[in-house]
Specification:
The protein is an alpha+beta fold. The protein has one domain: N-terminal domain of TfIIb (Single Sheet). It contains four helices and four strands; from the N terminus they run βααααβββ. It has a four-stranded antiparallel sheet. Helix 2 crosses helix 3.
């Protein structure tokens, strides 16, 4: 499951549309899609981007290069606007193979298996 999809989800239990918390068990880098939407058009809150970035920062083994890790760390530690290329790599250039998403409102947890969110 690509992380940008979490910004589109609605909790199946309570209906909240806040970005859920991701827990990663396994993730990998994937080829960036040819046509990425403009980040400003996606209207993703900076705190949601930071939350997703923080999850990938703590995931080991890292799927990012040392330079990307440093940029990610700087992005999380500063109050400045996030680096758009790094955000694109996180949202569109990664795939969560297995893990969970957690609704921060009601606590409902949904499993990710084989890159697919179990919605049933």
């Amino acid at each position: 499951m690509r992380p940008f999809l979490t910004t589109l989800l609605k909790c199946k239990k309570c209906g909240v549309t806040e970005v859920p918390r991701i827990t990663i068990e396994k993730a990998e880098r994937i080829e960036m899609p040819a046509n990425i939407p403009n980040l400003s058009e996606l209207n993703i809150a900076e705190d949601a981007i930071s939350s997703i970035a923080d999850v990938f920062m703590s995931y080991r083994p890292s799927i990012f290069s040392a330079d990307e890790e440093e940029l990610l760390c700087q992005m999380l530690e500063s109050n400045s606007a996030p680096d758009s290329q790094m955000v694109e790599k996180i949202l569109f250039g990664t795939d969560v193979i297995s893990g969970n998403i957690l609704c921060t409102s009601c606590g409902t947890e949904t499993r990710i298996n084989s890159s697919i969110l179990e919605m049933v």
